[in-house]
Design brief:
about 500 residues; alpha/beta; TIM Barrel; Four Helix Bundle (Hemerythrin (Met), subunit A); 2 domains; nine-stranded parallel sheet; 14 helices; 11 strands
């Protein structure tokens, strides 16, 4: 089976017991702090021992800064699809585009029926899921009132909206042949579970998804492959990394969800397993592929990936204040960590922007067409979605730098005059990054005007990535400790 070339995602799956609710939020914060990409929770609304999934996801999104959240998977028989579409889109907007929709046909018919839901045959469950995807896509697509009739669900003149803040994926969880064919035809991802689809069965499942994608006129790479690791025997970090790298390169799996019960488990997964898998996959691909998740938000943790940004400045000329960026015992570092959290939000959005550019440039991002169930769509419509995302990101970066230049830096300069050369350099880099943002904007105009703008857009976003990641790391190194002293003074 092929490697589809997607960036890798690593996440945690937690079981949120209602009588231990604070533990769920603690694990979510730990996953965010460890630099994991995804936080998933099961959706079993018929089980009173568990917290209700969407309420928990909202609380998790409010308590975290960068991690994406999703239900694994939403139980469709007890989730009316038009309402589910609004709930997911609303949370995506409230969280700054950090929600994906895991969706399932309902795997526990007795419990669903006991809770008042419909009992469906396997065939009916697939039919209902296909109708639900159509309805959710229609609710997320701007346009006139929607009329859709089905055997299980319908829309009779409902206006669309609210719309997600980003191109939200619908990742279908399932393992039967009909479910896999539906996934290949309409979904953005297949969320397989090792308990039901062990590694030796992945190839057959991938083949069905790929065949269905081709039959629907899609490229198989349009369907991301994710793997819930529940059910796999435990191994040490080195063996686990080797196994996951093989799954990525042999079967095209690009997302891994590890069931965890403690912060230590997820931190070990983030610090030891994920980097090793990324390194092995990048080495095998031989293309210098960037990890999709990347980095950790702790100023004292492992170094984040940062490219040199040499096209804009010489890093060796950056000034530093010896001793000024070393934290002292007992200092309150929360102010510095807040700066890191803001930066990590920018890093996460940057990775989303890069992924959008890669998918659009490669012709694999056809979500708008799938949402409206139209076989084809205009390239201009597709590029408009990408342009809106890029433009919004550029505005956020500019606002952040303006606040620093006009408020934070003058205060630090008065507090510790030794920082003046560092602050001057950071302000100069802000101006240089502003110029790069202008280049991205010009490249977007060229890209919408015609496909020949493809290379310039990717080059502009690459330069923005290199410059911004380098700049953020330098700023954190120099300012986290001074901010702690300033906040405490």
């Amino acid at each position: 089976m092929p490697d589809y070339g997607h960036g890798l995602l690593f996440g945690a799956l937690i079981t949120p017991y209602a009588d231990r609710a604070p533990e769920a939020l603690g694990l979510a914060r730990a996953a965010d702090g460890a630099g994991l990409d995804l936080l998933a929770v099961p959706d079993h609304p018929y089980r009173p021992a568990l917290l209700e999934a969407w309420t928990l996801l909202a609380a998790v999104a409010a308590a975290t800064a960068r991690i994406r959240v999703l239900p694994d998977v939403a139980a469709l028989p007890l989730r009316q699809p038009a309402v589910l579409a609004g709930a997911a889109a609303s949370l995506d907007r409230l969280s700054g585009g950090r929600v994906e929709l895991g969706l399932g046909a309902g795997g526990y018919p007795d419990e669903v029926e006991a809770a008042g839901g419909p009992r469906r045959t396997p065939g009916e469950a697939v039919e209902a899921l296909a109708e639900a995807v159509r309805i959710i896509r229609a609710r997320w697509t701007p346009g006139p009132e929607v009329h859709l009739d089905g055997g299980h669900y319908a829309l009779r003149g409902a206006p669309p909206g609210p719309y997600p803040a980003h191109d939200m994926g619908i990742w279908i969880g399932g393992h039967g042949p009909r479910m896999l064919r539906l996934t290949g035809a309409v979904a953005d991802g297949w969320l397989a579970s090792a308990a039901r689809v062990p590694p030796e069965a992945l190839a057959a499942g991938m083949k069905l998804v790929d065949e269905a994608a081709h039959a629907a006129g899609r490229e198989p790479a349009a369907v991301r492959r994710l793997y819930n690791l529940a059910g796999l025997p435990g191994r040490g970090p080195a063996e686990q990394a080797e196994r996951l790298a093989e799954l990525a390169l042999t079967h095209g799996v690009s997302g891994f969800l590890l069931p965890v019960g403690s912060a230590a488990e997820l931190e070990r997964f983030a610090a030891e397993v994920a980097p090793a898998v990324r390194e092995a996959v990048a080495a095998e691909r031989g293309d210098g592929a960037r990890p999709e998740g990347g980095g950790t938000p702790s100023a004292t943790g492992p170094a984040r990936p940062a490219a040199p940004g040499a096209d804009l400045w010489d890093e060796s000329t950056r000034p530093t204040v010896p001793g000024a960026h070393t934290a002292r015992p007992g200092e309150d570092v929360s102010a510095g960590h807040h700066l890191v959290e803001v930066h990590d939000h920018l890093r996460g959005e940057l990775e989303q922007l890069r992924e959008l550019v890669v998918q659009v440039a490669g012709g694999t991002l056809t979500a708008a067409a799938a949402r409206s169930h139209v076989a084809t769509m205009t390239l201009r419509q597709h590029n408009w979605s990408l342009g809106a995302h890029c433009a919004a990101y550029c505005r956020v970066v500019t606002l952040h730098h303006t606040v620093e230049d006009q408020q934070l830096f003058p205060a630090l300069r008065r507090f510790d005059p030794r920082l003046a050369p560092v602050l001057d350099r950071l302000s100069e880099e802000h101006l240089a990054i502003h110029d790069v943002l202008e280049r991205v904007d010009r490249a977007l105009v060229a890209f919408v005007a015609g496909p020949e703008g493809n290379a310039e857009l990717r080059a502009a976003v690459d330069l923005l990535s290199e410059a911004l990641l380098s700049h953020l790391s330098y700023e954190e190194h120099e300012l986290v400790a001074p901010l702690a002293r300033y906040a405490g003074g």
